[in-house]
Amino acid sequence: MQRFGVLAIVIGGLVGVTGVVHAQNPVTATQTPAQTQQPAQQQAANDVTACRLTMPANALSAQGLATPWVLSGARGGQCDETVKPQAAFIDATIFDPATSTVSIYRPLIINRGTTPAIDPLVPTLPANAVVEISVGFNGDQLFLADANGGTDIAAANCVNGLPGSIFGQEIFCNAPAFYAAANGKVAFPGRANSPDDGMPCPTTESWEIVDQDQSDNTTTNYLPSGNQTAQNTAANAARLGTAPISNGSDNNLVTRFYGPALHCTPPTATDVTDPDNPVQSTSSALQALFARAQNLDQPALIPANDPFVLVGNHPSLRKLNLYRMQVNQSTVASLQDASTTTYCNNLWNLGLAKVEQDRAALQAFGRSPDAGVSPDLHLFLLSRFKDSWDNLGCEQLTGTPNPVTLQTDNNGLVLSAQVTLPGQTPTSTTEANPTTTAAPTSTGTPTSTSAPTSTAAPTSTAAPTSTAAPTSTSAPTSTDAPSSTAAPTSTDVSRTTAAPPTTGATITTGAPASTGVATTQPAARQRKPTMRMTTTTTTQRSVVLVNDPTTTMHSGILPFTGAGDTRLVLLLAALLVLGGSLLVWRGNSE
């Protein structure tokens, strides 16, 4: 009996030492228990970029806007704001209730342990200004922190998801209050038509613009300088002489690529990032205001299976509605009202059809957001559609195989594509040579360009009043079962809106009076990174990071035990030692 007792004490001691070592050396940021045993899955997990962004105090104030946010690594990794795949970006939109106008400021993000390459200037805010902040990220998982135990986060009404399940690339501050104040107050001119196709210019809720995770990220650029960063103003660019890094997004696509390809300009407002030299630019929230103001019959709104609103790979009504509130979209009463089946059908029937209608203008534009996919904007959009169809599970939901087939070279560059539209036979397209006469260049860097030509005075098409519940006539009957026919319907959740006011401050938008000359060089790579699978894989990434390690217990399978919690292992060790001691004591007593 004493031998069993001694053995139990020895085993308990080994388990206890293992637990202590694990507590001091936790599993790395990109590992899960399964990955400690499967090297192939561990390699896939290493592709996940997780960073932490620490916000300043009083972030919604003038001084707070001019105080840099700080980027650092999360889960034991390293992050660098000057490295594009790891960079985060911020735009702030400011509503003046006295004049019903908006302005824009672009807070800076710096690396931890550094200072700005050029100090930001403090803007002057209107009295009673309502400020909204949008944060975008080129990596996969961006965690939010402050220096005061969450007080600053709460004070600025910042959200980045649900407890234990963040959005991924987005953080929003004070967005619902901003839209509640500005919807129906900021006036826009009537929506312009493109001179290329005669159709209304696109918005961030147009089906040709959206993908599987729409309404994300920002239009902000920063200037890197060594390991430092600066705001991208004309004065800073002239002083530093470096090329900006940018945030890939739907907002960026419509602002700098699709819109200019059709000779359309985005809504703009005064950008006061350099208060002494204001320019005209756009922002995430301004584009959301503009999209809402258009009263589209079939707006593209975030579906239930958007990867950013899933919880543990399952749809979540709470998370879906939380995200929609941050981007000026109506909440829904059920997941069925945000049917992914309907979303897929509209992507094909409305979105892909419009991309094909605009093919000539897109090919003539001469550059795309990601030259690594294709320098041809049309082929880039087809590749993006294909990924969205696959990643949303549209074939399973609609019964329709992917309408886009791609041919790529060994490096993944798209060379050609075959497209099938509803009721039509497949058509082929090949890469067009970039031209030099397609699109204006005035939308490249909003913070350092001159103001575009103004359009007509505002009409009665201002933003509608804010509403929450959609109409009940467009919800699909099922969100899971595939449809029984190939040709989709083109229905979606409609907004219920009140009659808009006829007065307000003008926001410039529409077709420009004149165009410039597009560059013949492809744009730098601006791939929109996500936590989803890509065209080269058949399964989702094996790791989904959902909690910031600064606030959670370290986990991972421990050697010898198979247990995943340090506290559990230490308890087991204590019980073994105690039991062994009792056995030894009993043996001595006998």
Topology of this protein?
Elements: H1 2-24, H2 39-45, E1 50-54, H3 62-65, E2 69-73, E3 88-96, E4 101-105, E5 109-111, E6 130-137, E7 141-145, H4 151-155, E8 158-159, E9 161-162, E10 165-166, E11 171-173, H5 175-182, E12 221-225, E13 228-231, H6 234-240, E14 245-246, H7 250-261, E15 265-271, E16 279-281, H8 284-293, E17 310-311, E18 314-315, H9 317-326, H10 340-357, H11 359-365, H12 377-391, H13 394-398, E19 404-408, E20 414-419, E21 427-430, E22 508-510, H14 566-589
Parallel strand pairs: 1-7, 2-5, 4-15
Antiparallel strand pairs: 1-2, 3-4, 3-6, 6-11, 8-11, 9-10, 12-13, 12-14, 15-16, 15-22, 17-18, 19-20, 20-21
In short:
This protein has about 600 residues and is an alpha+beta fold. It has helices at about 1-25, 40-45, 60-65, 150-155, 175-180, 235-240, 250-260, 285-295, 315-325, 340-355, 360-365, 375-390, 395-400, 565-590, and strands at about 50-55, 70-75, 90-95, 100-105, 110, 130-135, 140-145, 160, 160, 165, 170-175, 220-225, 230, 245, 265-270, 280, 310, 315, 405-410, 415-420, 425-430, 510.
Q: Identify the overall geometry.
A: globular
Report the portion of residues in β strands: 15-25%
- Give the averaged pLDDT, no decimals: 76
Instruction: Domain count, please report it.
Output: 2
Biggest β-sheet, characterized? 8 strands, mixed
Tell me the Rg in angstroms: 26 Å
Q: Helix count, per DSSP?
A: 14
Distance from first to last alpha carbon: 10 Å
Helix content percent band: 25-40%
Question: What is the number of E strands?
Answer: 22
Structural class: alpha+beta
Sequence stretches where pLDDT stays below 50 over 5 or more residues = 20-45, 434-565
Assembly status? single chain
